[in-house]
């Protein structure tokens, strides 16, 4: 997320931050089932998996919205182009 915040410096920071987030995503998607199997019994395993899966989606939404609080909107379309 902190690399995404540096988008005012260069668009490449945003691309690098999204790449790291995309590489880490499979580890977080599988962690909810592993957490439920390890910590919860058979009767509450389905509820624990559901809650952990929803927490993952809420975390993704917050992680996408939160960096926009730090980025100013003063860039013009000419500044958005990559340098040649």
Question: How would you describe this structure to a colleague?
Answer:
The chain is an all-alpha fold and 84 residues long. It has helices at residues 2-5, 11-39, 45-65, 77-80. The chain is elongated and about 55 Å long. The relative contact order is 0.13.
- Please indicate the count of domains: 1
Distance between the termini: 27 Å
Shape: elongated
Briefly note the structural class of the backbone.
mainly alpha
Radius of gyration: 18 Å
**DSSP strand content:** under 5%
Which range best describes the helical content: under 10%, 10-25%, 25-40%, 40-55%, 55-70% or over 70%? Answer: 55-70%
Number of distinct helices? 4
Provide the low-confidence segments as ranges: none
What oligomeric assembly is this protein in?
single chain
How many E strands?
0
H/E element sequence: HHHH
What kind of sheet is the major sheet? none
Average pLDDT metric = 77
């Amino acid at each position: 997320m902190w690399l995404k915040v540096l988008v005012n410096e260069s668009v490449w920071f945003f691309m690098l931050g999204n790449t790291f987030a995309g590489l880490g995503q499979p580890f977080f998607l599988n962690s909810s089932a592993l957490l439920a199997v390890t910590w919860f019994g058979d009767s509450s395993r389905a509820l624990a998996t559901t809650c952990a899966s929803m927490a993952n989606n809420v975390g993704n939404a917050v992680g996408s919205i939160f960096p926009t609080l730090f980025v100013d909107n003063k860039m013009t379309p000419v500044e958005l182009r990559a340098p040649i």
